[in-house]
Design a protein that fits this description.
Layout: H1 2-31, H2 36-69, H3 77-105, H4 119-142
Helix pairs in contact: 1-2, 1-4, 2-3, 3-4
Length: 147
């Protein structure tokens, strides 16, 4: 069961990152171009759900690697790619997303602050973190072993 669950969680997390980022969100914004607000709300909900999926999957995959590889897991690239992905998920989920929600609710007052403080700046940071996470996921899958 462990190997099967590992494979399913890998597909859901990493595949989900790519499908959501490259297909779902762009189609959502293109389809709802007259209602940008609804597209933004739906995107936030989808990304929030993907974040929780990433936390669960990331923790399981890390435990799986340590369980089967022992301390050797810490010497492997895939282990550190998972760590990187999980860190990206946690930063977006618990640091950037709350800031985005706060900035969006006070959009007219968001002209100053860290990195300028505006929604666009925080959105760019979040997007860069998401892209880095997706790249780590691609590398993880590319170099995945049979475990």
């Amino acid at each position: 069961m462990g190997n099967g669950l590992k494979n399913v969680l890998t597909v859901l997390w990493i595949g989900g990152l790519w499908i959501v980022g490259m297909l779902v969100l762009p189609v959502l914004f293109l389809s709802l171009d007259n209602n940008h607000g609804l597209a933004a709300v739906l995107s936030a909900k989808i990304l929030h759900a993907m974040g929780w999926l990433g936390i669960v999957a990331g923790l399981y995959l890390l435990v799986y690697r340590v369980w089967f590889d022992g301390l050797r897991a810490f010497q492997t690239g895939p282990f550190w790619l998972l760590i990187g992905m999980l860190v990206c998920t946690l930063v977006n989920q618990f640091a950037i997303f709350p800031i985005l929600a706060g900035v969006k609710s006070t959009l007219s007052e968001s002209a100053v602050g860290v990195f300028g403080g505006g929604f666009a700046n925080w959105h760019t940071i979040s997007t860069a973190i998401y892209a880095l996470q997706a790249l780590f996921g691609l590398l993880y899958v590319w170099h995945m072993d049979g475990k």
